[in-house]
Structure formats: structure tokens, C-alpha cells
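Newbie here. two chains, one complex. Structure please?
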Amino acid sequence: MIIELRQDILVANQKMVSVVKERLAQEKVLMLNIIGSPGSGKTSLLEATLAGLSERFRVAIIEADVETKRDSERLERFGVPLYHINTGGMCHLESDIILASLEKMDLAATDVVIIENVGNLICPADFDIGEHAKIAVSSVPEGDDKPSKYPVLFREAAAVVLNKTDLVPYTNFNVESFTTDLRRINGTVPLFELSATGGNGVQAWLDWLIQKVEASQA
Amino acid sequence: MIIELRQDILVANQKMVSVVKERLAQEKVLMLNIIGSPGSGKTSLLEATLAGLSERFRVAIIEADVETKRDSERLERFGVPLYHINTGGMCHLESDIILASLEKMDLAATDVVIIENVGNLICPADFDIGEHAKIAVSSVPEGDDKPSKYPVLFREAAAVVLNKTDLVPYTNFNVESFTTDLRRINGTVPLFELSATGGNGVQAWLDWLIQKVEASQA
């Protein structure tokens, strides 16, 4: 019974996805959906990304939290348009909320919309919200078994960021084991090993992103 | 609409909760529900707990994973009855699955059932599964803002474990900030700061647990 209800929600969501995709295509806007566990460093990755991207492109952010505006407050200093969604307990974003957010934006004056989804490795991976790419963020202290244990997200991801690599020496994280498991699930996905706060490896991620934005405008 | 569906699921779940509670009361079995993010160290906490508890009490484990049996495999060496639930994508446990697991157990020969819920800080907190206590596990690398950002779990918790305290020196985690936020949400909840793999602080957690089991048998 629960699975049937779940299917209804997914079907309702899917109907709005095509509307979202159409709006983005009209204005040649790239939309990314960042997904990861609570505390994997999604907001820190956004901070590093905005520092490297916001002078080159017109970026807008959609920030989703179950409660509080803390993540949005962290990003305000970059002065980019920022739309905060407080899901009030809901564990993922759906396409209708995204469409409502896009309606409030000046899409003609936007190159790329980056969404920080709710901190959750499971539910957000099930919901297409009209994005061009899902970005999976996993962090070293979470352990090297995450791709195997949460395969839906890692299979769906257009890029994987392994964050907090500066903590490798203090944990039993095995980079080879993580990579091998990831490759079994998603053989060709780009993997960026980086420290969003330390800066190591961030440039390769930015280069990939810049190429993505440029391709979407061609 | 989605909120209504959600309510239906919660009501259906609640009906079975009383059956679960009744079964546990009949046999004087204590049941704990461990909830935390992916990679917060729930399985490591279980390893440390079984090492300290399994000679004193008859413990049974219910292990839930979205996919894989990796966590169950890690616990097999303790030789305690272990029931594995593969939720097949579902992001939380519900009372009917727990009841089905309890039916398979020899409850008359069990003092305490410990459930490791799916790695998720949001959805499992909404579902009463008949447990006597929810245990919230949060870990240092996730950041000190978790109680404020995911208040439902921290409000519901009968105990909070702050795991991976050995990583404090390598992160910007502020223990005082975590504690202050937690106290605002749940003023009296016992907080155990520990390293499940290193062993620091584990004894205080075990002492609390032993007291709980003994009280349930009185």
C-alpha cells in the first residue's frame, strides 16, 4: 500500500518536471541538484563554488532545509540571488516547489541555478526535479561504503564529489575501496576528490562546472 | 495532498505500534531505536555496545539498510541473534516490519532489542515503531549545527550520542555550540560524547544502557 502511495507522488512529480525543463530550455539556464547526507559539506561546496564561479557567470541558488535558514545565511555574503525553501519536515524537494521558485527568478538574467537539496542520501535521489545534473556529495568521515549502501544516488549522479579528503589520515577511509564500489555502480561518472574548506582539488570541480555552463549556453 | 498521504501512512503505522508495545511488555523486553545520518557511526556504536553488553544481557539486533547487508556482516562476530531488513529503497522503518521481525524472535529469551534504523536524520524520526527509546547519533564531522537543523529527532530522543569526538581537533566543530543548541531543543536529554571506535566515553553510554535494561526487568 505504501509503495502505491509512493508511486502516486512520483507520477504527480513527473508531470511538473517537463514544465520545469521547458522553462530552463527557453532561457538556456543550466540547473544542478546537489544531494548528500547531513554534514557532507554541501554548503561548503557551494561556498567554494560561488567563490570560483560567481564572477564569471550569473548564478542563482535554491537552498532547501528541513528547518532553519542557516545555510542560506552562510551564502548571503556572495550577493547572488538566493531562494530559501523551508520544507517544514519534508525530506526531499519536488518539481512543483522548484517551478514556484523558478517563477520568482529573473531567468533571462541567469546562467546557472544550483540547488542544495535537503540533507538526505535516500529520498532526494528518487525525485527528478527537472535538473540537468544530480551532483552526489559524499564525505570521507561518512566511510567508504556509501556508494554500495546508497546506490540509487550514485547511479543517478552526473558527478560525484568526495569531500573532506583532508580527514583521510585520521579515519579508516579507503579511497580505493570507495572508487572501486563507485565504478561498479556508475562506471564513467567524474569523481572529484577535494576539500571544500581547504581548497585542495576544488579547481578540477570548477573546471568541470565551467565547461558544463558553457556547453549549456552554446 | 502529499501531506494528507503522509498522515494516512502515519495513522496506519500508529495502529501497529500498540501491538508491538504489548508484545514487548509481555516479555519484559526493552527496545531501542538508533537513528542517525549515513556514516554517523551507528554500526560502530553497536559494535562497542555489543562488546560491553552481550555477556551481561541477552541482546538481539534488528539491522535495517536500504541495500546491502554490510552492517549485519560487521555484527555477526558477536554471535547474537541478528535480523536483517533490506528496505529496498524505503527511507525509514515502520511498526509492521518491526512486528514481523519480533514474531521471528525468541522474545522470552531476550532482554533487549536494539534496532539500527536506515541512515537518515529525517524520516525515521517521524515514525514511532513501538520502541521504548529513540537514540540519536550525530558525529563531529557532520558539524555542530545538526540539532537546530534536524530538531524533530533531537526533540524525540531519549539519549543523544555525539560520536567521533576524536576528530574534534581536525574540524571546526564547536562542542559548546552543539550542546547549547541541543539544550534549547531538549533540555534534559542525556548526552554521551564518545568515540565508538577509539573507546573514549563509551563506558558512560554503557552504564546508562545497563541501567535502562535493568529498570525494564524490574
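Moderator note: Chain B has one domain: 2-217. Chain B has eight helices and seven strands. Thread marked as resolved.
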